[in-house]
Write a structure and sequence with these properties.
The protein is built from eleven helices and eight strands. It is of the alpha/beta class. It has a single domain, classed as Glycerol-3-phosphate (1)-acyltransferase. The strands form two sheets. The protein has a six-stranded mixed sheet, with helices on both faces. The chain has a two-stranded parallel sheet with strand order 4-5. Helix 4 links the parallel strand 4 and strand 5. The protein is globular.
Length: 298
């Protein structure tokens, strides 16, 4: 435990260990990903994909190791004991910080299949990490404003097609599909700009979860509704690396897959779209109340 050192030094050590861990595992990851790319046959995919997942799990274990070495975090976690690694899950979570991703990976590693995130297209250019996300076939999404789509209607539906193709691949091997329903990290400014009806959350977007359920609803064992609370306030990444984050509360609630919505046409049927939105809004009302209770009891 190195948390007794000055915060700046802890942050530098954590950053170095995080970088070294990535630089060790990413080249190995890319080697097998290129092999799959050069021999694009289903038997090769079925042989290589489990190897890629094991490499990613070892990478995450390395991150957990340097976190344990440099951080002094009190973890208050409930709801992860009865999960299964050989199942398919759809995971949704509130989103406040880049730290959320490390929290989720740390808690779920080898408890459920590797989390697959839907990422903004620009993130493919992040040094080292962009290549790793590509190798693990994280879907990259081109998110366009409504104004852009009015000028370029041919681009409408491209993200839906990306989601559909990604889910077809995910269906071949146990996978956890990760969805931040808010679509972006929570900030007070965004909350005010949206006029969000929730005290601790931005408005949820039902489109992504609807596409995933439509493509893979028969595969998912459950929806894992994850709530993360930082009692001292959501940290930025440097605050976390520097050891300034003292407590994390996480609650995981398995929910049944809404079978009455799975085969519905979200894009083309207004009634289905309204039903999805009501379902998501109720989930968000419950989560908002849970966050308030967790903060009050912290």
């Amino acid at each position: 435990m190195l948390n007794f050192l000055p915060a700046a030094l802890v942050g530098l050590i954590a950053t170095l260990l995080m970088a070294l861990n990535a630089l060790f595992w990413v080249p190995i990851l890319l080697l097998f990903a290129l092999l799959k790319l050069l021999i694009p046959l289903k038997p090769m995919r079925l042989a290589v994909d489990p190897l890629l997942l094991r490499i990613a799990e070892n990478w995450i274990s390395g991150n957990s190791a340097w976190m344990a070495l440099t951080q002094r975090v009190s973890w208050d976690v409930q709801g992860i004991d009865d999960l299964r690694q050989r199942s398919w899950y759809l995971v949704n979570c509130n989103h406040q910080s880049w730290v959320d991703i490390l929290v989720l990976q740390h808690l779920f590693n080898r408890r459920i299949p590797l989390l697959k995130f839907f990422l903004k297209q620009q993130l493919i250019w992040v040094p080292v990490m962009g290549l790793a996300w590509w190798a693990l076939e994280f879907p990259f999404m081109r998110r366009h404003s409504e104004e852009f789509l009015k000028k370029h209607p041919e681009m409408r539906g491209k993200d839906q097609e990306t989601t559909r193709k990604a889910c077809e691949k995910f269906a071949l091997i146990p996978t956890s599909v990760m969805n931040f329903l808010e679509g972006t990290r929570f900030t007070p400014a965004k909350h005010q700009r949206q006029k969000s009806p929730y005290q601790h959350l931005l408005k949820p977007k039902a489109g992504g979860i609807a596409l995933a359920l439509n493509a893979m609803g028969d595969k998912f064992q459950a929806i894992l509704d994850v709530t993360i609370v930082y009692p001292g306030g959501a940290p930025d990444f440097w605050q976390f690396l520097s050891g300034k984050l003292k407590r994390i509360i996480v609650r995981v609630r398995p929910l049944p897959v809404p079978q009455h919505l799975v085969q519905g046409d979200y894009a083309g049927d207004p009634a289905v779209r309204e039903a999805y939105q009501k379902w998501v809004q109720q989930m968000w009302l419950d989560k908002d109340a849970q966050i308030e209770a967790l903060i009050a009891g912290a």
